[in-house]
Known about the structure:
By secondary structure, chain A is mainly α. Chain A has helices at 9-17, 21-42, 46-62, 73-96, 120-129, 132-143, 148-155, 159-181; one strand spanning 113-114. Chain A has 2 domains: 3-96, RNA polymerase sigma factor, region 2, helix turn helix motif (Rna Polymerase Sigma Factor, Chain: A, Orthogonal Bundle); 101-181, Winged helix-like DNA-binding domain superfamily/Winged helix DNA-binding domain (Arc Repressor Mutant, subunit A), CATH 1.10.10. Chain A is 69% helix and 1% strand. In chain A, helix 2 (21-42) packs across helix 3 (46-62), helix 6 packs across helix 8 (159-181) and helix 7 crosses helix 8. Chain B is of the alpha+beta class. Chain B contains 12 helices and 8 strands. In chain B, strand 7 and strand 8 form a beta hairpin. In chain B, helix 3 (47-54) crosses helix 5 (66-88) and helix 5 packs across helix 11 (188-205). The longest helix of chain B has 23 residues, at 66-88.
Amino acid sequence: MNAAAHMTDEEMIKSCVSGDPQAQKLLYDRHSKKMMGICLRYASDEQEAEDMMQEGWIKVFNNIHSFRFEGSVEGWIKRIMVNTSLDCLRKNKNRFNLVDINETQETIVSGVYSSDNLSTKELLKVIQQLPPGYRSVFNLYAIEGYSHKEIGELLGIHENTSKSQYSRARVQLQRMIQMEFA
Amino acid sequence: MTEKNIEQLFKDSLENLEAEVNPQVWKNISQSIQVPGAATQFAGSSAAVKSAALIGMKGWILISSLSLALVGTAVYFGFQKQNDAAITTTVPVPSPVLPLPENKNETPDAVNSSVPVTGSADAGTENRKKAIVQDKVDLPDGKNSLQNVPDNTASVPSKYSDGNGLPASGQPNQSNPIPSPQPVLSSPGKTQAISPGQNNAPDEMTSDSQTPQFDAIEHYIVTDDVDKPVLPNVFTPNGDGVNDKLVLKTVNLKSMEVIVYDRKGKKIYSWNSLNGEWDGRLTDGSEAKEGSYFYTLKAETMEGKICIAQSSLQLYR
Lengths: 182, 317
């Protein structure tokens, strides 16, 4: 590759603002794998994740002029990806929002797990099987590190709703792990 | 460390998850990115021109030029305010000291000198006129000069429509009744877009009745239903003997060609016979993923009529 490959994120952003297709591709190549990882966590399957990727990156490039260079580029793109993923889930919710109420009534089982026999791929599969609402809240709280208050604002739900969704998501994850891998 | 909480377990393995991306995704993205540089610069144009130009602009330009749009919005509301004042004269007089966005550096002297004494409401109309005259003199910046606006009366409220103008109450004349620009500010974009259109609406509606009607109706007559194949939109090729294949039942057809596409628009399977079917496998024999697909079909009836149809298709296993 040429010198363009050694550009910093900031330089790339500037080139992207002026519409340089090469810089756009470089920026995409540099961050796409990680962003795909994020989308996969929020999506229920690979196709949905690809849709999220696509929409998210289009937003990134169409709004790249509004990047303020205050914080990392990756953080900015990541935030767009998370928000886009949530939007996609909201749009698709009529299709997949089936929750079996009985499954959520279980009492909390002991919360300690051995990670030795659980691969990333298996954990991803488990999280993708969660209903979208639980999945969003679990992702946002446990992995992204948002507070319940922030989640409430992001999803347009009450803080306490976020809390209860989260604890149910947790219970269901535990059950799923036990059933699949115990 | 092999034992941990479920949160930690997921966080550790999924937080920095990276995954290969289908190259098609980038293709789609690069095709959808807007070409930059189309943004129009408004600086220096008159308020009237701005408001006219903004009607046809897209939303993102509206947002980026929000502060400029406020000026134009106020022009519209200015007429209404003026009308109200003419009737009742109890409308509080707007303080004309409020600087336009581009004009924040204006010296306090210039600002103060243009403030009329507006303690009482019934002196409103008089003071408003004074203010107009003084504005013309005091505003040093050609961009903001009111001369661009043809009608003086319309231009007055444009001064107080600026949200930044409220600090003017911190000036010596705090007793000034501050006009309430909030209704204007609360939805500047919407008002901006709608108000000119409303004026035009009655003119445009008058020509509607001339649409030819009989021709249009003929297009919607549905021909023989029997010709139409049933278009299934879901099937489950999981080997349980129920709905394992996509089959199109047909009546009265001579030939039929079906093409199945995936969601990216890629052709993945096709057949060209009346009793063709799809078992959910790609041409290389691998199983197609669960998800949405589409298919089109082109058929010829016994009478030689060509029918074209399409449907979405859900594949579950």
